[in-house]
Structures are given as C-alpha cells and as structure tokens.
Amino acid sequence: MTSSPLAPAWLGHPADANVLPAPIWSRGAVREASGEIAFAGVPASALAREFGTPLYVVDEADARTRARDIRDAFADAAGRAGTTAKIYYAGKAFLSIEVARWMTEEGLAVDACSGGELAVALAAGVDPDRIGLHGNNKSLAEIDRAVAAGVGAIVIDSAIEIERIAAAAARHGRVQPVRVRVNSGVHAHTHDFLATAHEDQKFGVRLDQAEEFAAAIRSYPELRLLGLHCHIGSQIFGSDGFAESAARLLEAHALLLRGGEVPELNLGGGFGIAYTVADDPTPVPELAESIVAAVAGECARLGIPVPTLAFEPGRSIIGTAGATLYEVGTIKDVLVSVPGESGEAVDLVRKYVSVDGGMSDNVRPALYGADYSVRIASRTSDADPALVRIAGKHCESGDIVVYADYLPGDVEPGDLVAVPATGAYCWSLSSNYNHVGRPAVVAVRDGHARVIVRRETEADLLSRDAAYPGAQP
Ligand SMILES: *Cc1c(COP(=O)(O)O)cnc(C)c1O
C-alpha cells in the first residue's frame, strides 16, 4: 500500500505497524510472544492494571546505560586530547530523587536550574560539589541556598549576579566556583545551525563581554572563575554547531587565560534523540570524538592547554528510556479535503484516536509541533495499517500527542497504546490543565515495576483549593 497523502513526507506506509523501530524505543522494550509490548520484562497490560493509565514508564537499565555510554564516550575522547570531561545530567529533562541517584551512581554530576530542582538533587543525597546551578533569574533565596549547600558551580547569567553570588559566598564564608554563560551566536536545532554575531534571546551575555565579566569575578576573593559556559540548543543531530560554538568560545577563553586560571569549558547539552523513523542523530561516541577533536584543534591553534570539558546532556540520557502508556477511549474517522490530481477536492480519512491523557502529560507537540510515534502495546494485529492521529482528552483542538503514525486499522477502544521517547520534557513540563492529575512515573527493571513518583489525585488538586473543606493551608 502507498502512504496516505495526509501523512508527512517522512512517514512511509509500514509493512508492519507492530514493529518497534530500535532507535526510538528503550532497549528494554520488546514485543513478547503474547503480542504485548513488555518494558524491561513487565507487560504493558500488567503495568496498566497495577498503576493505571496514563502512565510514564522509565526503563532504569536503559537510562543508566545511556548515562554511562555518554560519560565513557566523552571520557575517552577527552583522554585522547589530554584532558578530562565532566558530565552533568540536565535535571530539567526529568528529575526525581531516584533518577538523581541513578545518575550519581553512574558517575554523573547533576544540573539544576531552580531551587526546586536543587532541592530534589540535595534530597537525593547528590554531593553538592557535583551540582551545578543555572538560571537567567535566580532568586536571592536560590543563590543563598545553593551557596550555603556548597554547590560546585553556579552559572552566572547576568552582571548583577556577580555581586549577588559574591555576597552570599561572603555570608557563608565560602569561595564559590562560577561559570559565565555566554552567547556564542551559534544556535542549533536538529540538522542545522545558525551562526550570528548576536542572538535575540534571554540567556547568557555577549561573548565580547567575557573579559569584563572575568575581571569583575576575579575582583571578588569569594568567587573562583571556572570558565565559560554555552548551550547552543536542543535536539541537535550533528557536531558542527558545537564545533563552531567551541571555536568562538575558545578565542574568548584564551583572552581570559591572560588574566588568570580558566580550568574549564562547559559546552552545554542538546544532543538529539530519535522520536520517529525520520530522526537520525549522530551516535554519541562519534559526537564526542568530533566535538573534543574540534576543541583540541582550536586549542593547538591558539597555543593554549585543552581545558577540562563539561557537558550537560538531559534528553539524550532520559528521553528514550521513557515511554507513556495510554488507553484508547474513542475513535473517529474525520474526513479531510485535499486537492486531487486535477484540482478537485478529494476527501481522505484521518483516524483520530483519543487517549486518556494528552497535553497535560506531553505538551511538546502542542508547544512546538514535536513529532512522536505510537504503537498498540496490548496486542499485535494483522489489520492493514491506517494513518492515525493520537489526540488527548483536553479542551483544546491543539491537544495532540502524535500528529501522524500508522497503527493497525482495527485499533479499538480499550487498546493500550505506547508512545516512545517521552522520558524527557514530558513529566517535567506536565500540567494540571482541566484538573487532570499528573500520571505516575514507574521505573521498570528486571521484570519489576515500582512507582518513583506517584500519580496526582483529585484530592491533591482539591487540597490546594482554599475554599475546599479539606484544604491544606
Ligand atoms: C536544557 C539545557 C540542557 C539540556 O538540554 P538537552 O537537550 O536535554 O540535552 C543543558 N544545559 C542547559 C543550560 C540547558 O538549558
């Protein structure tokens, strides 16, 4: 069969809409002989029965393996360039105490970008020295708490923060290590990067202000300059943007070296993952090798030592480890008119499959048109694949979870469907829209599942409503 004219160009008609394309699914997700998808040995139906739907399922071994692989890839590449690499897990992708512990056990540091994320990392027992704090508008309380806790790095995002952090360090009798977030003018997304002199965005300071910032930081004995920081974007597939950005940063880094030590360079996160069969991110070892080689080459050209390198991956560690399970509730065939070959309107069917969650548990499609994939999780089927759109249950027509994929045409109410690659920026961006509680997060490992963040209940939602008799003040 040919693909539906309603399908995007990248989405071919599959021979079999039951298969799980490897790059999109966690390593522990397999079709069992029963036809069900099992996650680390736990069948989808068992997960739905025990924990309900919608449900975030995180494959612990997969997340740990990706963390370790990234750590090793950068350690190896850095070693060949005569330096070391430090990997921070970007907690904003998904953070819970349990996940912070996995990352710590795999040798990663943790990045927090708010007091709340910092609180989770501290509650997880992460060594404060291995926590970084970000944010373009950290409150005085957040700065104070971070300094008091002894975090290993605070990333300065504006001039006013220099004195704020120095004051907190003086209060707590500490020397606070800091980085300066600069804007390299390189902004990358997926296959392309855009390189400009200046970028119209809220993060960081101009690269040509780096020396001024370094001098101001060095004027405070309570501050220690670690180096520059830059994050060029997210869901990036190649290394070119990183290499270009690093080259620009190293010019400034070399200037800073004239005024004192600059031990590190932090190139941020943003390594891409596959959400659909159209995505082909560069494998991490290759990415690590080319980024580090670009840095080493530039350092040689500038005649400076290769600094300790820091990276902050989030999505590439936790994204593919997660999937969301939903139950199908209603289905409708919607007629869509498209221009036919001779210009006349032709009606085509788009099958809207509505599930029991939506933009409250995954806002990325509504927020920036992100594409996802879907499979029936509770069974296989020989029915001809049909183009579907997975819609949520919210009161917004933009409440779409999967814009386009093929499912067996006999998909029906009661089927469980799984949307892969939802480990990053789904739970962390979730909301209570329509007073829908956030789903539970369960970790699966070796045939066992356990809740790592419980489901939000109506009682949770009502308990914050001050007029409710049982409200918690
Ligand atoms: C979001 C962010 C990251 C993580 O990005 P991923 O795409 O999840 O790897 C790292 N560093 C900074 C400063 C960020 O804002």
Automatic annotation (TrEMBL):
Pathways involved: Amino-acid biosynthesis; L-lysine biosynthesis via DAP pathway; L-lysine from DL-2,6-diaminopimelate: step 1/1
Which major enzyme category is it? lyase
> What are the record keywords, sorted?
Amino-acid biosynthesis, Decarboxylase, Lyase, Lysine biosynthesis, Pyridoxal phosphate
Q: Which cofactor does it need?
A: pyridoxal 5'-phosphate
Q: Where does pyridoxal 5'-phosphate bind?
A: G270, E312, P313, G314, R315, Y425
Signal peptide location in the record? none
Record's function text: Specifically catalyzes the decarboxylation of meso-diaminopimelate (meso-DAP) to L-lysine.
UniProt-recorded name of the protein: Diaminopimelate decarboxylase
Its source organism is Herbiconiux daphne
Q: What is the lineage of its organism?
A: Bacteria, Bacillati, Actinomycetota, Actinomycetes, Micrococcales
